Structure formats: structure tokens, C-alpha cells
Amino acid sequence: MSSPEELLPQLRAEHAFDPLALEAWLRAHVKGFEGPLRVDQFRGGQSNPTFRLSTPGTAYVLRRKPPGALLKGAHAIEREARVMSALQSTGFPVPRVHALCADPGLIGTPFFVMELVQGRIFWDATFPPVAREQRPLYFDAMNATLARLHQIDFAAIGLADFGAQGNYFERQISRWSRQYLQDEAAGRDPDMDRLVEWLPRHIPAGDEVSLIHGDFRCDNLIFHATEPRIVGVLDWELSTLGHPLADFAYHLMMYRVPPRGVAGLLGADLRALNIPNEAEYVAAYCARTGRAGIANLNFYIAFNLFRFAAILHGIKGRVLRGTAAAGNAREMSTTMPLYARSAWQAAQG
Fold it and tell me: Mind giving me the DSSP string for 223-244?
């Protein structure tokens, strides 16, 4: 569901395109499409610009790569479309993908069109609009949905080659370290430099592989309009095959960060809000996934804070290069040192 305040008054100049060319493509590639077409841009979409496509009969969502020079491997909208399409067969709550256009010539970059899922998105992790007695149910829905994702047989739905299997942390630490170090325009941070050295030397023993979302936060989820139930999981750009505890710890990061730039719970009175604390939330996930507990939790948290700081570092670079997708990108980029510092603190236990 999109409300007027979630839409920009007009398309950002750098993301504008010919709506008539898009409408013609939609008629040819989206079953049942009938114009005329109206295009509005969502305020969100830090990485990939996102648009609402409205017609008299229905509405769709378009996700596209941003224009300009892009870092290798970033803005993988083709992967988003593929994983959501594969998950349809499992009944997992994802929007239906209607069509993918890999041709950058039509609107300037590749894009895909998907279903507009109706419901509620919560940008504040304390879930202010929800009644106090209902909040634990909303947190339990998030916990259950992520646990369910990690137990899906990814090979059975055609995703056996969706990422390399094994050595997830080595590969991810290398990837995000490389992106951080290569983006010279965004500068350097002393805590990030320390983490680049520390993380590879402290990877826990053992390995697991599951399908992981990569950005599982409350503001990437669509809840039912009135029930504590998730009806849509969005923003699959960072999804891959990887370690489920990395994915869970990223989600758990909400307990370790303040509500600045992202939905954080640090500083909130969880008891007064009737929100489960971190230990209770971890226990619920472990019960669902058959674990006795999570050893080395601080490493997993440190890794994810580092990874998120690297993402923010990339946003800062896009701001400086003029390719940032979201209006709040500059504000978001200023929080990078906070996450880098928190990551280093978690690494030190």
C-alpha cells in the first residue's frame, strides 16, 4: 500500500524516463495490462529507484537500477526478480514478478515490474501504531518468517546456483572490504580499517548454507492491514546462498542500533513497549530452527554492522558521484561512522 506521503511530487530528474515507451512495453510483456499509465516515484529505495505504476484497473511496482557508474555486483535487480519468482512456488510471502527487462535502452537501465502488495509498512521498529498487547505478535511474525526462509529447500526451487556454497563469511568480508577500499571518493574510516583486518581472523568454525535475504528489516516487510501477519517481503537485492546466522544477526542488529537512518531499538524501553528483548528473540529463532543457542553471536553482529557500514559508505560515494537513488541518501551516509564504531565495539565483545 502506498500513501501520498510515500510518493514524491514528481520523478527525480536523474530518474525520469519516457512513460509512453514504458507503457508500450507493459502492454507487450505484462499479461492483462491496460493503460493509461501514471508513474510516481516512491521516496524510499536507497539502492534501486522504485516507482508506482498506476492504471484505472490496477497498480504495479517498478524497480530499476540507478543511472550512472555502478560498482560491480551492486544493484542486482535481475537477482531480485529471479529469487522472488522462485519463491512463488513455496507460498513464501513475496510480490509476484510480472516481467523483467534487461535492455537498458527502454528507460535508461534494466528493470522489473512486480505486484503492488497492499498492507502496512512500519518504519519505526517500536511499531507505534500497534496496540501494546499486539506488539509481541508482530515481532513473532518477523521471527517466524525469517526462520521459514532459512528452512526452504533452495535447490528444489531452482536456486542451487544462486550463490557460492560454503565459506560465506570469507567471501562476504572480502567483498565488502573491497567495495569499501575501492570507493575512494567516500574516504576512509579508522574503525572500518580495523574491521577489515580483524574480521577475517575471527571467523567461527563450522558452516551452514541456506537461502538468505540479506536486508531483513521491519521496513522491508509489508504486514497485513489489520493482522500481525507478513504478506510481502521486499528488497531482495542482497539475497544469496549464505550462512543463516549471518542473515538472522543482521535482522537482530535492530537491538544494537539507535533509530537513526534505520529502524533501531537501542535506547527504547522494551518492557514498557511490550517488545521481546534480544535474548528472548534469539531463543524464539533457535526454537524454530532447532538450535540450542548461538555461539559467537557478537562476531555475527560485528560482521553485519561492518557490512551495513560498508553499504552506507557506498551510499556516501553515490551521493558524491550524484547517482544516489533516495532523497535521504545524504542523511543516511552520515551515519556510517556510527555503525563502524558499533561494529568495532561488538568485535571487542
Answer: E-SSSS-EEEE---TT-EEE-H
Residues in the chain, total: 349
List per-residue pLDDT tens for the chain, 349 residues long: 344 448 888 888 888 999 999 999 999 999 999 999 999 998 765 578 999 999 999 999 999 988 865 555 556 799 999 999 999 999 999 999 999 999 999 999 999 999 999 999 999 999 999 999 999 999 999 999 999 999 999 999 999 999 999 899 999 999 999 999 988 778 899 999 999 999 999 999 988 999 999 999 999 999 999 999 999 999 999 999 999 999 999 999 999 999 987 899 999 999 999 999 999 999 999 999 999 999 999 999 999 999 989 988 988 877 777 766 555 667 776 888 889 999 999 999 8
- Give burial (CB, 10 Å; 0-12/13-18/19+) of 107: buried
CA separation for the pair 16, 270 (Å, rounded): 43
The enclosing H or E element of 64 equals: strand 59-64
Residue 161: Cβ within 10 Å count = 10
Distances (CA, A) of 223 to 47, 80, 130, 220: 22, 20, 11, 10
All domains of the chain, ordered by start, with CATH? 4-115 (3.30.200.20), 132-347 (3.90.1200.10)
Tell me the three cell numbers of residue 309: 557500514
* Cis amide prior to 36 (ω within 30 degrees): yes
Q: What are the cell numbers at 74?
A: 551492486
Gap between the Cα atoms of 283 and 218, Å rounded: 19
Q: In this structure, are residues 49 and 64 in contact, taking their beta carbons and an 8 Å threshold?
A: yes
Sign of the Cα pseudo-torsion (211, 212, 213, 217, in order): positive
pTM for the predicted model, two decimal places? 0.89
